[in-house]
Each structure stands twice: as structure tokens, then as C-alpha cells.
Design a protein that fits this description.
5-stranded mixed β-sheet; Heat Shock Protein 90; 64% helix; alpha+beta; 549 residues; 14 helices; Rhopdopsin 7-helix transmembrane proteins; 10 strands
């Protein structure tokens, strides 16, 4: 046999076997996939026996592989029919009696072809050519081929007319591959050899099967990508086993047969171990991908819910802000006596209501600021201002609350000239309110003091808020600027609040070029919080709105 024909046989058999096994290993072991594997094995067996039939020169072996070639061609047509019947789903239901008759017929035909001379009487060797002497029952082989070919064609046509959508597309792909392969195979292996007597093109026939195998695999897979490592490992193993089988088939002595069988066994053991190892790794990677996708989907849902929560809080806070502000105004007027004199008992109740309203105002403001921070959209209205003047106004505003706790809230003036800073006045005010409010909460007696320092080399003003309260442990101090952080100390009274004030203060100062930190703290000895903001630059604009995103 010429070299190009040998290459055609080897490449076609290898590609068919590799594709069939790859699909079998990578797909769910359904009846369709199992039938596809049997179909591919029959094709590969047909090609290999045909190759050996033309390669060997020993009469006994030529006759053996000639008869086996008949057997594999019969199995090929039978499994092709079964596959077309099942894929992608059944549209015609055959009774169990019909199936039993077809299986019995196939078994009889293959046994007669492989074990007797009734189908293939003899193979005559004439140089590179082989001439088949047909037995008296050769007609059974011919009827078998024609019957299953026509039956497959009928089912294909019926499925093309019934199925729709993806299933119809799969059947069309299968029909194209089947049509090309069947036409070439019939011409080169039936019409020309047996009807015309021309065997010259019989070597090209096996290459036609690759169209059917690839089209069928593509129809099953539906664009799914197989793992590259696993496919490479499987094809490497298939190649070793394929070569080993060829070596066994063409061995000319007992020693060569034994060595080839040993090589086959060793290759099989190594191949199975490799495939198993890569398969397990592939399964783990698929599981990780599945978990990753599941986690991504869960995160997406959480993000959506978090966004809905933020929007709800923002809307609710805005809606609450107006009535709370109105309540604050009326309560303030009542405390000032604008609605007439009230008894001391009622006045105390009004003060309690005012204090509770102030807590609610602070909580609403913090929730609104938190939603802006979560959306990364904070508006800063920068302008030149005196930070000590802002602090003085806050001290006046918070003094009533401090007095209710029996605490002294005092402002220590800066001895020198206070430079102006370039910041958002409302944000500075909220930072000071949060720091003073925290100090009031955790100071049972004593004072809260606000003082200042100026760092001229660093061009910044530093504000200190010192209290004589309970102080903080190192563990609590480390987490004070995290969102929703609450002091975890049995000696500290549980106060109302969301744990957002200092977190918001830190984010505000980040946006204004400042910083907040704990200057000093010790359990039982009070705490000192500090923050700084930069000087106003020489070219500072009177009013500038900046969005931090």
C-alpha cells in the first residue's frame, strides 16, 4: 500500500477514535452518547481492518481481516441507524419485537460474515490488489447495508420535517455529515468495487467517515468547549493504544506479539491513570467555576438588594427629615416660652422630647450620609471659613444636651491668630456634632473640651475633642472608624445609635483632604479625638461644589 494511503487510514482511524472517546468521556453517559461511541468504534474497526486487509500479504491474515471488515461494516450501519433513531429524541417508536428482529438479524449476519465462508468465501491476493470471492449468502450483507441505510434515511427525513428549533438544527448538521459520508462510502466501497470492479478508489472511502463523525459530535456538543488538557491526555493515550493495536496486528512472530501486548498493557495502565488524574482535576475546576458563578449570582442579588435598601433608607430619611425639623422648631419655641408659660414638670418633658428629637435628627442625617457614601456620591461645598467659629456654634447647639447629663461642654480658644481653612462648613459641623455626641454618651461626669492647634509647616488646623469619660480599650480604639462599630465593654452603658458617626466623619475628612484619629485614650481616663483640615489656598474660590465619586 502506498504511503499516502497509509497516512489516510491512520489519520482517519485515529481522529474517529479520538473524537468518539472524547465525546464519551466529556458528556453525560446517555443512550445517545453510548450509541455514538459504539458507532465510532465500529467505524474505527472497519478502517483498521481495511488497512490490515491491504497491508498484509499472508493469505490467512488477509482473509481474516477481510471477513472482519464485513462484520464492522455491518455493525457500522446498525449503530448508525440506532443513533439516528435516538438523536436528539425519538419521533418514531418501534416495538420491542421490531428491535428484537433487527438485533437477531444483525447477530446472524455478523456471525455468518466473520465465522463462515458463506458471505466472504475467499480473498485472492494479486500484488497490491485484493479480489473477494463472494459466498452464497453475500446477498444478506448487501440487504443488511441497504436496509439500515434506507431506514436511517427515512428517520432523518421524518425528523427534519417534525423537529423545530435547536433540535432541528442538530438534525440538519447530522444529515449533512451523514449525506456526505454515505455518498462517498457507497461510491468508493460498494458501487466501484462490486458493481464496476474498480478497487482503485477503495482506499479513499474511509476518509469519508470523518465528515459524519465530526458533524455528529458537533451536533451533540452544540458549541460546548471541551477541556484542552483532558482532550490532549485522552488523544495521547488513544494514539499509544492505536499504535499498539497496529503492532499486534502486523506482528510476524510470537515474540513480537508478546512485546506488543506488553506495550499495550503498559500504555493502557499509564493512559488510564493520566486520564483519571486529569479528569479529577477537570471536575474540581468545573466545580470551582460552578461555585464562582453561583457566588457571582448571589453577589449580584445582594448588590441589588443593598441598592434597594440604600434607596429605601434615602427616601425614608428624606421623608422623615421635614417633620423632625418642624418638631424641633416647635419644641424650641415652647422651651423659650413663646407659647406661654408652662409648669416645670411639662417643661422637663418638653426638654426630654427635644433631646430625643435631636437624636433622631442626628440618626437621620447619618443614614442619609451613609447612603451617599455607599453610592460614592458626596457633594462638598468648599469655601474659606474659620473652624473655631463653626465649633463655637456647635458648642452652643450641643450645650443643652451636655447640661442634661450634668457635663461641662467648653470651648478653649486658640491663643494665636486662627487661619482660615478651605472646607465644607456643613460637613465640619456634622463631624463636630458626631464627636461631641459620642463624648456626651460615654462621659458620666466631668467635661468635654474642644481645643485647637495650628500646624504651620503642614499648613493645617488641628481640632481636639477631649473628654473625661470612660475611655477605650485598644481593641475598641482600633475599630472606632469602621461602619456600625459599637463599643464592646460591659462597663460602658449601651447607648442608642447606629455606629455610623465616626465612620462618616472619617469619609468626610478624606474628601476634604483631612484626617481623623484618636490622639489619646485609656480605660477610665477619658479619650481625645483629633482631626485636621488644610489651610485655605491663596487661590481659593469663594464657593466651590465638588462631587466625590
Amino acid at each position: 500500500m502506498e504511503l499516502e494511503y497509509r497516512l489516510i487510514y491512520f489519520a482517519t482511524a485515529y481522529l474517529n477514535a479520538a473524537m468518539g472517546l472524547s465525546m464519551f468521556f466529556h458528556r453525560t453517559r446517555t443512550a445517545v452518547v453510548q450509541t455514538y461511541l459504539a458507532f465510532v468504534v465500529a467505524i474505527t474497526g472497519w478502517i483498521v481492518t481495511l488497512f490490515l486487509f491491504y497491508s498484509l500479504t499472508d493469505a490467512m491474515h488477509v482473509l481474516l481481516y477481510g471477513r472482519l471488515n464485513f462484520v464492522f461494516s455491518q455493525l457500522l450501519l446498525f449503530f448508525m441507524f440506532v443513533f439516528i433513531y435516538l438523536f436528539p429524541r425519538k419521533v418514531v417508536v418501534l416495538s420491542k419485537y421490531v428491535w428484537a428482529a433487527m438485533i437477531v438479524w444483525t447477530v446472524i449476519v455478523t456471525c455468518l460474515s466473520g465465522l463462515t465462508d458463506l458471505v466472504d468465501r475467499n480473498e485472492i491476493i494479486q500484488g497490491a490488489d485484493r479480489i473477494t470471492e463472494f459466498g452464497p449468502l453475500f446477498w444478506m450483507h448487501f440487504v443488511h447495508i441497504i436496509f439500515f441505510f434506507l431506514a436511517s434515511l427515512v428517520i432523518l427525513v421524518k425528523k427534519l420535517s417534525i423537529l423545530r428549533g435547536k433540535e432541528a438544527l442538530q438534525v440538519r448538521r447530522l444529515a449533512i455529515g451523514w449525506g456526505i459520508s454515505a455518498l462517498l462510502a457507497i461510491i468508493t466501497n460498494l458501487v466501484l468495487p462490486f458493481l464496476v470492479g474498480n478497487y482503485d478508489f477503495q482506499h479513499i472511502g474511509p476518509a469519508a467517515t470523518i465528515f459524519l463523525v465530526l458533524a455528529t459530535a458537533y451536533a451533540i456538543a452544540r458549541h460546548e468547549m471541551l477541556d484542552v488538557k483532558m482532550v490532549a491526555t485522552e488523544q495521547f493515550t488513544i494514539c499509544i493504544l492505536f499504535i499498539s493495536f497496529i503492532n499486534i496486528a502486523i506482528a510476524s512472530s510470537t515474540f513480537q506479539v508478546v512485546m506488543a501486548i506488553m506495550a499495550l498493557v503498559v500504555g493502557l495502565i499509564i493512559g488510564i491513570a493520566l486520564i483519571d488524574s486529569v479528569r479529577k482535576a477537570h471536575i474540581r475546576s468545573l466545580e470551582l467555576i460552578r461555585l464562582s458563578r453561583s457566588l457571582a449570582a448571589a453577589n449580584k442579588k445582594l448588590e441589588k438588594r443593598d441598592q434597594m435598601r440604600s434607596e429605601f433608607i434615602s427616601i425614608a430619611s428624606h421623608q422623615l427629615r421635614t417633620p423632625v425639623s418642624v418638631m424641633k422648631g416647635y419644641l424650641s419655641l415652647m422651651l423659650d416660652g413663646n407659647y406661654g408659660r408652662v409648669s416645670k414638670k411639662i417643661q422637663d418633658k418638653i426638654r426630654q422630647m427635644y433631646e430625643m428629637n435631636e437624636r433622631l435628627v442626628l440618626l437621620i442625617n447619618n443614614m442619609l450620609n451613609m447612603t451617599r457614601i455607599e453610592k460614592n456620591k458626596i457633594d462638598f461645598g468648599f469655601k474659606e471659613l474659620r473652624i473655631d467659629e463653626v465649633a463655637a456654634a456647635v458648642v452652643v447647639e450641643m450645650s443643652y444636651k451636655a447640661e442634661q447629663r450634668g457635663l461641662e461642654l467648653r470651648l478653649k480658644s486658640y491663643a494665636g491668630k486662627m487661619p482660615t481653612v478651605y472646607s465644607d462648613e456643613e460637613k465640619i459641623r456634622e463631624i463636630l456634632i458626631n464627636l461631641i455626641d459620642n463624648a456626651i454618651k460615654y462621659t458620666q461626669k466631668g467635661f468635654i473640651e474642644i481645643s485647637f492647634d495650628v500646624d504651620h509647616p503642614g499648613r493645617r488646623v488641628i481640632v481636639f475633642v477631649r473628654d473625661s469619660g470612660l475611655g477605650l480599650t485598644q481593641e475598641d480604639a482600633a475599630g472606632m472608624f469602621r461602619e456600625f462599630h459599637r463599643v464592646n465593654n460591659p462597663n460602658v452603658p449601651k447607648e442608642n445609635g447606629a455606629g455610623l458617626g465616626l465612620f462618616i466623619a472619617a469619609r468626610f475628612l478624606d474628601g476634604m483632604g483631612g484626617k481623623i484619629w484618636i490622639e489619646k485614650t485609656e480605660p477610665g481616663a477619658g479619650s481625645t479625638f483629633a482631626f485636621h483640615v488644610p489651610f485655605a489656598p491663596p487661590d481659593a474660590q469663594p464657593d466651590a461644589t465638588v462631587k466625590l465619586e
